[in-house]
Design a protein that fits this description.
Nuclear Transport Factor 2, Chain: A, 4 helices, 165 residues, alpha+beta, 28% helix
Length: 165
């Protein structure tokens, strides 16, 4: 997977923060509203579709994630995060990354802004061994003329551990 630019980008997108069993993957229509934007991001991420994953985010999205430099913001922040994620995946020999969206912990919609906390599970292989990392994503969104967009998101993951076979 990491042997081409497309493979590297796919590995980077799949590590996020971010198809698992989502409504789109199960054949159902993705949810509307703020969760629709989150599903669009994660589903695109899982397919390795960088452009669509990026389109679910505002151009200057703020991102907090567990690998260095841990925070990205401003113009080009999404692409910088993707690049750093790819470097991390390559350095740790991570492949087969997938993010599964779980239960919504909290959702607050205040007109054109929203705050969502959702449980996620990140699975991948590291040096060929299956790894699992339960986590939560806290996401702030804005409802723009083109629909809901992710303004910022933070990944809060447990320490990754070997997955049970």
């Amino acid at each position: 997977m990491l042997q081409s630019a497309t493979g590297l980008a796919r590995a980077a997108l799949l590590a996020a923060g971010l198809a698992a069993i989502t409504p789109a993957a199960a054949g159902a229509a993705p949810p509307a509203g703020p969760m629709g934007a989150i599903h669009a991001f994660v589903d695109s991420f899982n397919r390795g579709d960088i452009a669509s994953a990026q389109a679910a985010n505002e151009p200057d999205v703020r991102i907090i994630d567990e690998f260095a430099p841990h925070e990205w913001h401003g113009p080009g922040s999404f692409q910088a995060w993707v690049g750093d994620l790819g470097k991390e995946a390559k350095a740790k020999a991570q492949t087969d990354q997938k993010v599964t969206i779980g239960q919504v912990v909290r959702q607050v919609v205040d007109g054109d802004t929203a705050y969502v906390v959702v449980r996620v599970v990140y699975t991948y292989r590291e040096h060929g061994k299956p790894i699992i990392e339960p986590a939560e994503m806290a996401v702030a969104l804005r409802n723009e003329t083109s629909g809901w967009k992710i303004a910022s998101w933070a990944w809060a993951g447990e320490t990754p551990r070997p997955a049970k076979r």
